Amino acid sequence: MKKVILVTGASRGIGNNIARSLAHENIVIANYNKSKDEAKKLKADLKSENIDIDIIKADVSKREETEKLIQFAINKFNKIDVLINNAGISQEGLFTDVTEEEWQKIINTNLNSVFYCNQQALKYMIPEQQGCIINISSIWGETGASCEVAYSTTKAAINGMTKALAKEVGPSNIRVNAIAPGIIDTD
Q1: Tens digits of per-residue pLDDT, 122-173?
Q2: Distance CA 8, CA 31 (A)
Q3: Given 32, 116, 124, 151, the catalytic residue
Q4: Closest CA to 80 of 92, 93, 67, 71
Q5: How many Cβ atoms from other residues are within 10 Å of residue 120's Cβ?
Q6: Using alpha carbons only, what angle is made at residue 11 by residues 84 and 57, rounded to the nearest 5 degrees?
Q7: pTM (predicted TM-score)
Q8: Is 151 a catalytic residue?
């Protein structure tokens, strides 16, 4: 039986490649926020291979949009087997130059989105006593990166959330893991 997989930030970069590779044997819901053209291209490319995916616009840094995204999956497929929290942004520059607005944007996009998506998906996974959550982190969450303090902070927090949440929902047969890539050549 095919798994229902929701990938946030799937229009570009790592998320796009995750969605492409998983769509061949699963049902994929590809989330995007601003990159509508790239999301449409992903759908069209897969359609040319006779693979259909759903592309859904939602700003996962906002709880109400995340609730709608998760509800779409439940309404259409009656479940979510795998949630891949990939949406993220980065900003390079000196820590002393980071504005409060920039800090909040990175926290909301990289960290709060993972909180919102995990919390919403677990409402459905826990009663089913199954599921898998994969949080895309970064090597900078382990080592920190000069001139990327805000980004590194969010990824370190994701690592901590992943470890604690895995212990909390493991007894419900739900796996929670993080993947921490190194530098990847994306836009």
Answers
A1: 999 999 999 999 999 999 988 889 989 999 999 999 999 999 999 999 999 9
A2: 5
A3: 151
A4: 71
A5: 22
A6: 85
A7: 0.94
A8: yes
